[in-house]
Amino acid sequence: MKTLILYDIPSKLEGKYWSDNITKSRFVLGYKGLPFRVEWVELPDIAPRMKEIGAGKNRLADGAETYTLPALGDPNTGALVTDSWEIAEYLEKTYPEKPIFSHKSKGLIRAFTSALINLLQPAAIFPIFRASQILNERSAEYYIATREVMFKQRISEFSPEGPKRDEHWAIIEQAFTTSKEWYVEEEGNWLMGDVFSYADIFTASILSWLNRVLHEDEWEKIASWHDGRWGKLLADVKKECSRM
Questions:
Q1: How many CB atoms lie under 10 A from the CB of residue 24?
Q2: Using the 8-state DSSP alphabet, how is residue 105 labeled?
Q3: Measured in Å, how far apart are the chain's first and last C-alpha atoms?
Q4: How far is residue 33's CA from residue 196's CA, in Å, rounded to a whole number?
Q5: DSSP sequence for 131-187
Q6: pTM for the whole structure
Q7: β-strands 36-40, 4-8 pairing
Q8: Would you say residue 122 has pLDDT above 80?
Q9: Neighbours of 50 (CB within 10 A)
Q10: Rounded distance, CA 90 to CA 11, Å?
Q11: Which are the contacts of 40, defined by CB distance < 8 A and separation ≥ 6?
């Protein structure tokens, strides 16, 4: 089998990976045991590199179309897929061993992922601010400039210490409290009880993002909530998807 190519954005951190969206694809590839290599692309180089390989643009929540990562090249089929959800669907259809959408669960998992995003979205600006601090210089400059336009404020105003940061923490904690209520509906390690699915990959990818971009004491705070559930979930998913 030929090695697949995952296009990812590097950081200054050990291992380089950090993006939750790209981690979703990493986890799926690892879980299915598919060989892949990573091509690192700095943020300002994404558009020219995606044009060069013939990738299409993705539609953002505001309707704008732009080049984004992850992107996945599969020399076994000639496919070039962008967007983490589209990549998950492609890999499930093309390599159905070790399914991630068992029991016709794709629609329900999509609803779950949307609900979790909606819970976290009002506080996402806090880890977005932290992400600007772990990127390489060229990507950091690009990231800060584009996010300041997106949020219509200076990056120093994203999540300053004090009442605004406290509000972000409260939103994040409530989001995971709600997620805990969903997880405890079934006995077992996973959202679907004993059945591992893309829902767990999605949740763990967000946890991985927080683990990578937040300060160590900030991550430890999240990891300890609900008797250490979230630190354990991330560790368990990493074990299931052993090749990161």
A1: 25
A2: -
A3: 19
A4: 15
A5: HTTTS-HHHHHHHHHHHHHHHTS-GGGSS-TTHHHHHHHHHHHHHHHHHHHHHTTSS
A6: 0.97
A7: parallel
A8: yes
A9: 22
A10: 27
A11: 8, 9, 10, 16
